[in-house]
Known about the structure:
Blueprint: H1 13-19, H2 24-48, E1 66-73, H3 77-88, E2 98-105, H4 112-117, E3 124-127, H5 137-148, E4 153-157, E5 161-163, H6 167-178, E6 182-186, E7 188-189, H7 194-211, E8 230-234, H8 235-241, H9 253-263, E9 268-272, E10 277-279, H10 285-297, H11 303-328, H12 334-357, H13 368-387, E11 391-394, E12 397-400
Helix pairs in contact: 2-7, 2-12, 7-13, 8-9, 10-13, 11-12, 11-13
Amino acid sequence: MERPPPGTELLPLGVALFWTPPGWVWLLPFLYFLVVLLGQGAIVWLAAHMPALTPEEVERGSMPVEVSVIIPARNEGGDLERCLDDLRRQDWLQHGGRMEVVVVDGASTDGTAASARAHPLGPTVLDEPPLPQGWVGKNWACHQGAARAHGEVLLFLDADVRLHPSAVRAGVTCLRSTGADLVSFAARIEMEGFWERVVMPLFVQFVLLYFLAPRVNNDLSSRAMANGQFMCFSRAGYQRSGGHLGVKGAVLEDVRLAQEVKRRGGKVRIFWAPDLLSTRMYTNRREMAEGILKNLHGTRFSALRQIVLASAIFLYFLSPFLAVGLALLGWLPAPWLLLSLVLIVLTAVKQVGFQRAVNVPLRYGLLYPVGCVYYLGLFARSFQQGLRAGTITWKGRTYDMDA
Length: 403
C-alpha cells in the first residue's frame, strides 16, 4: 500500500484520502458535485419553506371594510371579462365587506373599455390620460386608479387573473391578521403550450432562488418582492411607500413597491396561493420571450448581474452535461463522469417533482436543458440590448433602457 506524502499522517482520514494518489483525482470533481448539489437543494428548500395559503385556511367572520379593486387593462377585453365575472362571485360581500371595482383602460383598441362598462358588475371605468414621459404604462394606470379609489384597502389585480370566490377575503384577512402593509399572492401559472411547459417551471424556480422568496416574510430581512398580479395594500401602507408615483419608471413595479415598503419600515407578506389565484401569463412563444426578457432586464441594465445570473444557470443546470462530454472524450478523469451523471439524474428527479408541484405533465421536467438554453439565449439578447442602450417592449409600448 502506498504511503501518504510526508506530513499528511496527522490529517483527518477524509482529507488524507483526497490528498494521496489516486484520492486527489476525486477532490476537484467532488467539490464541484457539492456546489451544484447545494444549488439544486437550495431551490427545493426554498420551495418547501414558501408560506402557502388555501381557501380552507381563509379566516371567516364579518369584516366591514371597503376594498377598492384596481385593474389596469390594455387590450385585454376577454381576460378582463372573466376577471370581472370572478369578482362578481366573491364572497367578500357576504362577510360584511364592501367592494368597488375601478378599471383603468390604457388606450385599448380591442373594445376593452366598452366591454367593462357593459359588465353586470358595474365597475367604474376610467380612460387613462396620455402617458407622461418617464412613466411605465401599467404604473400610470394604477396611479390613476388609486387616486380615484375610496377603499381602506387597495387591491391591484392584473386583468388576466382568475380568482377563487374567497380570494378577496383572503387578501384582506391576511392583511389584517399579519399587520402587513402589503400582502401578495403567488398564482398558479397555467401552462398549455410546449414552450410554456418547458420554460415557465424554471422561471418559478429562478424567482424563488433570486429573491430567496420565503425570506420576504421575515421583517428583519431586506429581501422584498411581490407579485403584481395580486397586491393587497392598506391605504396607509400604500401611501407611505410612495405608491406607483414612487416607482413610475419601473417595469418590475411589484418588486420595487415591496422594496419601498420594507425600506420605509413596513411589512410585506407573500403567500403561495395556487388554489386562490391562477393565470396564464403568456399565450405564445413571442409573448413569453417578451415578458421574460422584461423581467430579466427591466429598464436598468447591469452587465455584471446578467453575466452572474447566466453563469449560475449554466453551472447548476448545464455544466454536468459538458463534464460528461469532456469525460467521455478523455479530457477529464473518470470521477467527473460518475459524479456528473449522478448530478444529471438528481436534477432530473427534482425537475420532475417540481413539474408535479406546478401541475405540468411530468415528462416536460426531463427537458429542462432545453429550457435553460432558451434562458441563456434571452440573457444574450438582454446583454446585447443593454450594451446598445436600446429599448424594451411590453404591452405594445416601448421604453428606453438605462445603460
